[in-house]
Design goal:
two-stranded antiparallel ribbon; Rossmann fold; five-stranded parallel β-sheet; 10 helices
């Protein structure tokens, strides 16, 4: 019997819910990437793995740094069947496609092969729908219900060993969009430099800037030093000093500290003040 493991990264629960659903339906082990990321060399005792992750800044990179680090640590990647599911808050063709393409490139550079890739839309965890130029459905209940149907179809395709749907169309779309993504890269990078409090002429790249953007995370007077932010951070980026959180510049931009703070004392720079969202089926105990 084929043994399968599902690895996921999630801060506000979208990717966790998808990963958990897939693991249950496929009778696979469910493992948070944060649980294994500190291992120097990862040997995966499974025939097949699924990687479930959120799309991050698709024009620049698409995949969270922790996911790329995880892939590069797998020492038997050549012998494993790999599939992936990307969750995103905007249009899948714009956000998920370039993210999955980047994931495929990383896996291939390590000698592995991404055998199938899928995506599903869930509510945007910073609720910033206004920046999307084409009108998009904002009803969370509708979005979540559609995602459940999509995940059912994904599981069916995985069971039947069916590959990626519309593969040629997706490749062509990526080719058409590549020039636009390149145009977007510099403005996005410049904004990251500001959030990282680095000069605009710095030579730091995307993956070097993201961890430093915690310099722009704000902590207000509501903080009571409870330490929940430290506990939910998947990369141990927070320590408590004098009953206040201090960020250690290893940020993954997952919003967990902001979202799960019981006092609403933390504001991530990518969220408007008082904006909160986590998947309604997820509790803080799931994240912990």
């Amino acid at each position: 019997m084929m043994r399968m493991k599902i690895y996921y990264f999630s801060g506000t629960g979208n990717s966790y819910v998808v990963a958990k659903d897939i693991a249950n339906k496929l009778k696979a082990d469910l493992i948070p990437i944060a649980e294994v990321i500190n291992i120097d060399k990862i040997y995966i005792n499974a025939d097949s793995i699924g990687i479930i992750f959120p799309s991050y800044l698709a024009p620049l990179a698409g995949i969270p740094l922790i996911v790329e680090q995880f892939i590069r640590k797998i020492i038997n990647i050549k012998s494993i069947h790999i599939f992936a599911v990307c969750t995103c808050g905007g249009y899948e063709c714009v956000n998920a496609l370039p993210s999955l393409k980047k994931l495929e490139q990383v896996i291939r550079s390590c000698g592995g092969k991404l055998s199938a890739d899928y995506s599903t839309r869930l509510p945007m965890n910073n609720l910033d729908y206004d920046h999307i130029p084409i009108p998009i459905n904002r009803n969370h209940e509708t979005i979540i219900n559609r995602s459940k149907i999509k995940v059912d179809n994904i599981c069916y395709r995985i069971k039947k060993k069916k590959g990626t749907k519309y593969k040629v169309v997706k490749i062509l779309f990526n080719l058409v969009m590549t020039p636009l993504y390149k145009l977007m890269q510099q403005p996005v990078t410049n904004d990251l430099k500001k959030k990282a409090k680095e000069p605009l002429d710095t030579q730091l790249k995307y993956y070097e800037l993201i961890p430093l953007t915690d310099k722009s995370i704000l902590v207000n007077e509501k903080c009571n030093g409870c330490g929940i932010c430290k506990k939910v951070c998947p990369v141990n980026n927070i320590i408590i000093v004098n009953s206040k959180p201090e960020f250690q510049h290893r940020c993954q931009m997952c919003f967990a500290c902001d979202e799960w703070c019981p006092s609403s004392a933390i504001q991530h720079w990518s969220r408007s003040e008082s904006v909160k969202y986590h998947h309604p089926d997820v509790t803080i105990s799931d994240i912990l």
